[in-house]
Input
Amino acid sequence: MIEMKTDASLRAMREAGRVVARALTAVREQAAPGVSPHELDRTARAVLAEAGAGSPFLGYRPDWAPVPFPAVVCVSVNDAIVHGIPDGRPLADGDLVSVDCGAILDGWAGDAAVSFTVGRARPEDTRLIDTAWEALEAGIAAARVGNRIGDIAHAIGRVCRAAGYGIPDGFGGHGIGRTMHEDPGVPNEGRPGRGVRLRHGMVLAIEPMLLAGGADDWRTDGDGWTMRTLDGSRAAHTEHTVAITDDGPRILTAL
Output
């Protein structure tokens, strides 16, 4: 069932979104060669604690996961697509890093992700990351009252495929509100004019995931969480929590 949020609820979700934005900004500023994902997680924890926010990631265990997630951010490096568990291995110059973060504040959730390069960027990684942001912007532009979920999916998929990138099968965005994952699902590829019609008060986490090799196949690490490209190519992941309003899409996780 899709929960329609009141305007007051959207304002509360915006505050949760601000916390997510601050955490991602702090993590991105800290990320550098020699810094470990563990350290990035500690920084995000400090931002959430200062805001009095909880983490929807920490302890989260969906049906397919062998263990609860042990951190407040996912840190996915190079060929890791999403769900990377922060570890103590230091980041290296040229690593492509995707960080996903959520927050719960006053009972409302926010969720967003960024991709960036640590140190010197390879041109092909810059293009991949830029395309991921372009795909996110296209999806957000389609998130308008009267459109359908398929319009968002089509907008994202068109950008990704035109650039020659793969889209991981079975993964995409989702509704969000009192909990991190709610109805409806938001695919990263689809046919326009299909699916649930968008209405004022719906809130969606829109999150393109791009695979540089062009294939859609992926595998899961032995930790049961980290998703990696099957061909070893690099991946990028971007995300914002977006409210559907009569005045147009409203990004709730902007800084």
